[in-house]
Amino acid sequence: MIARVTGMAVYLCHQQPELYEHDAAVVAAAPGRVLLDRSAFHPGGGGQVSDSGWIEHAGGVVAVTGVEIVAGTGGDEFWHLLADEIELGGEVLVRVDAARRVRVAALHTDSHVLNALVFERFPGTLVTGAQINADGTGRMDFDLSAVDNDVLRGLDAGVNDVISRGVEVHSVYVDATEAGSTEGLVRSLSVAPPPTPDGKLRLIDIEGVDRQACGGTHLSNTAQSAPIRITKVENKGKRNRRIRFELT
Ligand SMILES: [Zn+2]
């Protein structure tokens, strides 16, 4: 995920979302973990799980179970966590688990739509937490009082309407100052967007539905997602509502 550009990190998976396999060189290694010169793995963050996959090396294949971000002297380091306590070196082949990536990206894109519907229906509602899991389930927490839980339970119909309409999803880069002055653009749910070399902010634009800052992984069209189902609405504290949902 990391390409060193004037000391700032740029996610390779943002630049090339369809890249699931590529060569890389080991930069540093310890038993069970490795740092690469480039990687298409998304490290996760903001409630979204990281990618997983495999690394093919001179001695065989090892599974990558996740990514750990460690602050290094030259910026963040993205350590790939391995399923075996082996120490890698030299040239390797990186393979991202594409099925998992797409599943997480679908659920994450759908969570933007759900967030937009809640924001529209109950203006100004803040997201207080979010989690997107690898198994096709997720949840979002909203700061919402005095709303009937049955109303929230019915929101999956609106999300599924956007899915079936096949709405285009784009990532665009804007000045951070412009983003800061637009209401609702930077909500607390977002996966913290990584800085770009020129200080731009990455926005995810679901045409006519939602536009907000996010550094996570998303689909390029909502029709690529299966419909979702809201499975549960829970009260979490006096004001928080937790909406659980899953891909069908
Ligand atoms: Zn997002």
Report on the architecture of this protein.
- With 248 residues, the chain is α+β, with helices and mostly antiparallel strands.
- Helix content is 19%, strand content 40%.
- The protein contains 5 helices and 15 strands.
- A 6-stranded antiparallel β-barrel has the order 3-4-7-6-5-8. A 4-stranded antiparallel beta sheet has the order 9-10-15-14.
- A hairpin with a 3-residue loop joins strand 14 and strand 15.
- Helix 2 crosses helix 4.
- The two termini are 30 Å apart.
- The N terminus is likely disordered.
- The structure holds zinc ion (ZN).
List the helices and strands and how they pair.
Layout: E1 3-5, E2 8-10, H1 12-15, E3 21-30, E4 33-36, E5 53-57, E6 60-72, E7 75-82, E8 91-96, H2 98-121, E9 127-132, E10 137-143, H3 149-153, H4 156-165, E11 169-175, H5 176-180, E12 200-206, E13 210-213, E14 228-236, E15 240-247
Antiparallel strand pairs: 1-2, 3-4, 3-8, 4-7, 5-6, 5-8, 6-7, 9-10, 10-15, 11-12, 12-13, 14-15
Helix pairs in contact: 2-4
Low-confidence residue ranges: 1-9
Biggest sheet strand line-up: 3-4-7-6-5-8
Secondary-structure-based class equals: alpha+beta
What small molecules are bound in this structure?
zinc ion
Helix content: 10-25%
Query: Cα distance, first to last residue?
Result: 30 Å
Can you tell me the overall shape?
globular
Integer average pLDDT: 88
**In this structure, how is the largest beta sheet organized?**
6 strands, antiparallel, barrel
How much strand content do the residues show? 35-45%
How many runs of DSSP E, i.e. beta strands? 15
* Number of helical segments with 4 or more residues: 5
